[in-house]
Amino acid sequence: MAKIFGLLCALLGTVALVWAQSRFDAVQIRATQVAANVWMLEGEGGNIGVSVGDDGVLLIDDQYAPLTEKIVAAVRKITDKPIRFLVNTHWHGDHTGGNENLGKAGVLIVAHDNVRTRLMTDQATLLGKTPASPKVALPLITFNDSVTYHINGDTVVVYKVPASHTDSDAFIRFKNANVVHTGDVFAAYRYPYVDTINGGSMAGIVKALDDLIPTLDDNTKVIPGHGGVSGKKDVIAYRDMIATVSARVQALVKQGKTLEEIKAARPTADFDERWGKLRRGDLFVEFVYYGYASHKK
User: Fold this and answer.
1) Which residues contact 37 (CB under 8 A, 6 or more apart)?
2) How far out from the chain centre does Cα 238 lie?
3) Which structural domain, as residue segments, surrounds residue 150?
4) Residue 107, SS3?
5) Low-confidence stretches of the chain (pLDDT beneath 50)
6) How many folded domains does the chain comprise?
7) Contact present, 244 and 228 (Cβ < 8 Å)
8) Residue 36: partners with Cβ closer than 8 Å, 6 or more residues away
9) Contact between 199 and 291 (Cβ < 8 Å)
């Protein structure tokens, strides 16, 4: 029986591996020009920002490891300049999975201090466990508050924002191009995922967006962590949705309602059509509820 069980486990593992590989084999990398020297790549995972020009390529995030060759090929269609720098907006695997491949290729990885700290050791999240990354995948340069690139005719500022999606989130602002990459602090089409186990905070997301919105104008292009190229109105709508649902959930908690009672009250009902197609409203309510409960302790 033990032998049969072992063979079954091995078979299931093989099937899972083949499924995962076929999933990535089917992914196509789509490139969108956001500004003269700034592009966005979409595939499977977080959106990738690309700065191109005579100084070489600066990447923002790198999705999953099996997609690295496709991502590099997509960059090669835009420019023949080498990929020199990689910035991680935070540590989650759908944004850092290609770090090892790019690190081995000599790309200099830069991120907030907490990104390196998280990647160095095994991490638990609400979605499962993430093993520690090898040394070559770790950021070689880290910052506490901000770091500035003077590259491709632009001033590119990478700066820490309040703990929001995680405790390691950074925004990247292209000053001349009037473009901002927000990582997963802003997602253009879905309810947020807040990694409360690793320092994420719903209130932090609202604060980060409250700080960002006054710096945007009607021409600013925003590259979200997920979804299409957006603008100021989209960021405001996302921020207001989060703040409204959070206030509703907190009010129900203060009334002594249980989580199931709060879900039954459907505090996301008027937002589900726009934001609930990928992630259900009741799951978003759980993020708000547990984040609020943790804050009250």
Assistant:
1) 51, 52, 53, 152, 153, 154, 177
2) 15
3) 27-232
4) coil
5) 1-19
6) 1
7) no
8) 177
9) no
